């Protein structure tokens, strides 16, 4: 069979399948099981409404429990066993992690990442979204800022290797330093600060995400609110800080949370740039060291990663509950 | 070393791409040339697997993989069995996932035996037949050590031979540009003492002797482990080397620390390395030899295994533009002889079928080695393989180092447990190169080793 | 009045300037990648990409042509043009350049200025002119191997399409492209549909346990997907899905769920309550309300998420490696590039750069075509 045709057919089956599920299951509910007519119409409507949420949620819940809940529980149990998995050692993996200086470095670095990357990329995203809104070439600027999102992490790491290269013939930073008469410097070996040079890569990639989402949110603010403020004599900065930003706080939280979570999953950048050397290890890349070798420890690291974001999670859950009231 | 990369000479490369156009054609017509065709004929006469399909996976990809496909075409021609080869850069990870998910191929070509050992202990590998256990002992130069390297405990706890070494790299080599040596009047050093004196001489002449590059993404640091292993072989006995690999000799033993510091004598001495040690720590190993080919040269020597010519700049011909010399032993340690460090790929059966057994026999026949040798820098310790098949003098000289070594030892980091050999040792060497004391680095590696025992 | 206008233009200038600086900062690495994709490996490791458009002074070496040897008294004279030398000529496809300096030793290749005669002692002398003609005088017969000389000359900038050629014409790349689409299109649409229904249920339907499900989904956001790879592959094998397109759709859909539900629910909850309430009063079922009102209103959010899910699945390597068989017939582009192209070519930055640009093309196209839907967020928002 022609591969193009085969590809199209598989796509149709996949997409059609999920669509058919929602349409058919709801049809079954409304037309066959509990039709909204006849003597029991109102009882049927109520019954249908009891079942419908679960029809809507079923695919998501099944997918999540299979693909995420089950592995997480399995991993937690696995993290209580030794490296070969045949001996229960309680929290032994966790205590040996805490005792390991490498883990502590990775942990501290990760906390830095989790604070710095979301803050900077959300801030930049917000500023760019606001500023480009009024520019004639705003869309071009946005597209350029967005472009790194479309580059794979491997590609991104590659291009930043050229930025950071120690040879002033290759690395633009060292080329600039050389033109100022300074000695070449390997920024990836610069104790402590090298972390920030790695973070810059993720910020470069992620700002586009923040910008797109925040730009949509900013445009959602009713014109009248802003016009009223202009008439009241507020300057653009005041309008931005006092009216626009508060209106999009919810979205800022969403972007911040999403970026934080991404930070805790991305291992590619550190993996490709330094391999965790020069004290740049972070937990996801630290975990990769143990994957498939010492699964007890690898899963323990994963659980720690999940614990780090707990505060952000709790904050989000509280927020969600507030909205529902 | 993470994987066995075998170089392809430009000529062979062209020949390969020409052949891949017409898929299953045999690249070297049967009956022509110096090949042991008789071996192929007798193999064909006794094996018939018509209609069978064989799945082989390995770490070699691209043009390198094409060379293997060329070889498999002969197996298909002889037995009628179809061979499907699939190579992956992340083979190490893929094969572990496959073993856990139950999707193992029929035969796996491991770039290093350490991983095979792990899988063998989990019962994922099939030991070779009784008839094959002594195959390497009888047919390979230094055969007993090859056999030892392929012997590990299986899931039953008893030792078995798990496969056959196929394809070798020699590591104890220093590459240099002969013309630059000629112009500057430098001689090939015969001893470590001479090598160090030459390095000092180059510095005195205003040059930089070495290019070192440890960068390799997540595997950053491995080239330095080769240095340390070579130094171990030149400062300690073979017994000590073997005890070091199995951790009977602790990693922080003075013997090991001394070997690390011997590497440091080259890597850390002011002016010895292009860009200094911190540049060495981050320069990609594939880019680092480039400096030798600049005018004026950024460095005069580069220590790397036999696969490195594929990363030399375009147009550089190994044998004329660039040569190698044997990384010499210490004059003060004459009793240690001329040890050679190397690495090799292990072909193991992962699925017990008749056709896989036949395939292993095929890989053991001299003709299989010759067909690989004829395509480029594939080195073989097979005694029956015809050395005339080698395509270049460089290759022949490398083959000779391999077959005349007084002792041959396998890359130690490939034999150590994964967490040490492919992690702690690597990062430790980066730490050492960027300024940590050797003792502290060795202590840290040993602590990590203690943790996994 | 003037004052305010002045302020305004001042602000506009500041805004323009700030955005311009940021855009340049963002663009520099990308341009570096783009330029590098048109250069070969040797050029990339020789000079910085910002110097690619300019001619650079480089050193070349050749040998005196021994076929031209003539005897002049006790001296053997070699003559010729360096640009005819087989080692030099390939670097100057457009004909001879101007030589600035020459030398006889690799460690000092620019010892003498072009046009001057270098006295090398013992009667040995070398003259290389700026146009490449040379005269090499030797006290002894050079035999068949001529003596070395080094020259420094400006080489014109050299760009090549060969990296793109290699990437695009690599065997199976077309199939890989189709495979990638086969993976990404359903892996984008399926999770969005699933998540949109779920998000609606969680935002606008009342049922017991709702808050628990929301909490659980937010909690699951953080699960590193590496954890799930092996257990899920085992499960797929047990239920007979094995490594297949179906398997990878399911995997991508599931891994994308928490974020999709989280983002979409957050958006949907902001939709005007009265529209939905009044539709309910008119007797619409939730299915009808969702299809006719919520779905169209959520289009900007759906488009935004679609873009990101598409990008993630498009650039994904890990999930594809685990859930798809490794044969040629099912390789996606990222796997093809990472495992096949880069493997044998090692540190070939040019290939990597062009591969990055080949694979960036489609996502950018998607972004530009969906961008106008993002702008429609303005319209949808103004309903509020």
Automatic annotation (TrEMBL), chain A:
Residues 107-316 form the ABC transmembrane type-1 domain. CDD domains: TM_PBP2. Pfam families: BPD_transp_1. One of its GO terms (biological process) is transmembrane transport. One of its GO terms (cellular component) is plasma membrane. It is a multi-pass membrane protein. Keywords: Cell membrane, Membrane, Transmembrane, Transmembrane helix, Transport. It comes from the Bacteria. The chain crosses the membrane at residues 6-29, 50-73, 111-132, 144-163, 196-218, 248-267, 298-318. It is found in: Cell membrane. Belongs to the binding-protein-dependent transport system permease family. PANTHER family: BLL4140 PROTEIN, DIACETYLCHITOBIOSE UPTAKE SYSTEM PERMEASE PROTEIN DASB. This is Maltose ABC transporter membrane protein /trehalose ABC transporter membrane protein /sucrose ABC transporter membrane protein. It comes from Loktanella salsilacus. The lineage of its organism: Bacteria, Pseudomonadati, Pseudomonadota, Alphaproteobacteria, Rhodobacterales.
Automatic annotation (TrEMBL), chain B:
Gene3D superfamilies: Periplasmic binding protein-like II. Keywords: Signal, Transport. It is found in: Periplasm. Its main location: periplasm. Residues 1-23 form the signal peptide. GO terms for cellular component: periplasmic space. Pfam families: SBP_bac_1. Belongs to the bacterial solute-binding protein 1 family. This is Maltose-binding protein /trehalose-binding protein /sucrose-binding protein. It comes from Loktanella salsilacus. The lineage of its organism: Bacteria, Pseudomonadati, Pseudomonadota, Alphaproteobacteria, Rhodobacterales.
UniProtKB/TrEMBL annotation, chain C:
PROSITE patterns: ABC_TM1 (PS50928). This is Maltose ABC transporter membrane protein /trehalose ABC transporter membrane protein /sucrose ABC transporter membrane protein. Belongs to the binding-protein-dependent transport system permease family. It is a multi-pass membrane protein. GO terms for cellular component: plasma membrane. Residues 177-370 form the ABC transmembrane type-1 domain. It comes from Loktanella salsilacus. GO terms for biological process: transmembrane transport.
